[in-house]
Design brief:
It is found in: Cytoplasm. The protein is mainly α and 171 residues long. The chain contains 8 helices and no strands. It has a single domain (5-160), classed as Peroxidase, domain 1, CATH 1.10.520. The longest helix has 26 residues, at 137-162.
Length: 171
């Protein structure tokens, strides 16, 4: 999977979700528009920690299950509201999944044994990956370039799908 294929997959899932929810994706679209510039100005780690500071725990697992695991939407109200209103959690999930794919560490939920502590486990994994990147400047540089390219492509795809007079799904 490359920096074009993965954003196309995410764009397709986002379109399916918008149709299912009958809502716009303006929150996710806002994140897609601001992320490339944020990475260029602040760097990858500060950009991702900013997203982390904005996530909504109740949307973390549904976002992973839908965007990464390809499962059906179970709690559509939360996920539909997430992509329309804020988009921080879903954008962080797809970005983090890309990083883990590039690191050849594709485990997400599977890594966590205790279901009650699933959200905390995922956050610990996220912090662990960020520390790994911070401690290896060469790896950070490669991953940052890849995430920037992915983010630029995702921005173009989301703008292409949802550009014009308002977002699809809101009519």
């Amino acid at each position: 999977m490359n920096e074009v294929d993965y954003p196309l997959d995410i764009g397709e899932k986002l379109l399916e979700l918008a149709i299912y929810c009958k809502r716009s994706v303006r929150g996710f679209r806002s994140r897609a528009r601001e992320m490339p510039q944020m990475i260029q100005q602040l760097g990858l780690i500060p950009s991702l920690t900013f997203l982390l500071s904005k996530i909504d725990d109740k949307n973390l697992i549904p976002s992973i299950q839908y965007f990464i695991k390809g499962k059906e939407i179970k709690d559509e109200n939360n996920l539909c509201e997430e992509i329309e209103d804020k988009g921080y959690t879903s954008y962080l999930v797809v970005s983090f999944a890309w990083i883990k794919l590039k690191l050849n560490d594709v485990q997400f939920i599977d890594k966590c044994d205790n279901i009650e502590e699933l959200t905390d486990c995922i956050k610990k994994d996220y912090i662990s990956v960020l520390k790994t990147l911070k401690n290896d400047k060469n790896l950070l540089s490669k991953i940052e370039d890849s995430v920037l390219n992915f983010s630029i492509e995702l921005k173009k795809i989301v703008d292409g799908i949802y550009g014009g007079e308002g977002d699809r799904g809101s009519s």
